[in-house]
Design a protein that fits this description.
Elements lengths: L12 H17 L1 E4 L7 H12 L15 E5 L3 E8 L5 E8 L1 E3 L5 E4 H9 L7 H11 L13 H23 L14 H14 L1 H7 L1 H11 L6
Parallel strand pairs: 1-2, 2-6
Antiparallel strand pairs: 3-4, 5-6
Helix pairs in contact: 1-2, 2-4, 4-6, 6-7, 7-8
């Protein structure tokens, strides 16, 4: 596992022990369902479980509550979308995704992208951490970019995240190139999930671009393995 998942070899013994316990619980409680011709061996299932539990080392097993299945596609997968606009017109389209987390359902990942994250762990991407951030986010009943927090911290979080999110949205809308992935400007919940990815895969860039957000990430998730 340490050889295949670079984040693991960078953890101190205490945090590694907590991750091992969470991973074992994940494997006991969750069903891992490969799709199509994808076959996952025991080590690959452990890799998936460990990556999903990486954001829970400090938060704890509460982050596993409310869902029971991890669905794994061989590669990116296509989903149908629909939206009714204010004029009553129904819009339908298809999205190609590498991960998805349903509010009251499974987590879905692309194995090819999980493997790619492990091969280049400092590239700013970690799809498993991204989707688990959504699962943590929704534990308070709202998918809004703010996980369950003590009230005083929640106020500080909302202030700092809103300011950073608004600044990023303004730059993206102006057509500027941004060091942080522009997908973070899609919605506050995506901003939190993308910030989670950078915390685990490129904390130096997050610190440079959004120091207040980076500080909250360290406080919430603990130190990044690549700090």
């Amino acid at each position: 596992m340490r050889a295949r998942v670079p984040w693991l070899s960078r953890l101190d013994p205490d945090r590694e022990a907590r991750l091992r316990e969470l991973t074992a619980r994940f494997l006991h409680e969750k069903t891992i369902s490969p799709i199509g011709e994808l076959v996952l061996d025991e080590v690959q299932c452990c890799m998936l479980a460990a990556l999903c539990c990486l954001p829970l080392i400090e938060f704890g097993a509460e982050g596993l509550r409310g869902w029971s299945q991890l669905i794994v596609y061989p590669d990116a997968f296509r989903v149908n979308r629909s939206h009714m606009d204010a004029a009553g017109v129904l819009h339908e389209w298809q999205d190609d995704l590498i991960g998805e987390a349903w509010e009251a359902g499974p987590v879905i990942l692309s194995w090819a992208d999980v493997a790619g994250d492990c091969e280049d762990p400092r590239a700013g991407f970690c799809v498993a951490a991204h989707e688990i951030a959504h699962k943590i986010d929704v534990l308070d009943g709202l998918l809004d970019g703010t996980p369950p927090l003590p009230r005083h911290w929640q106020r500080e979080w909302a202030r700092d995240f809103q300011a950073a999110y608004d600044a990023l949205v303004a730059r993206v809308d102006a057509g500027e190139e941004t060091a942080i992935d522009g997908y973070a400007a899609e919605a506050p919940e995506e901003f939190f999930a993308v910030a989670t990815e950078y915390h685990f895969s490129d904390p130096r860039l997050l610190e440079t671009e959004m120091p207040e957000v980076a500080a909250h990430m360290r406080r919430f998730y603990g130190p990044s393995p690549f700090a």
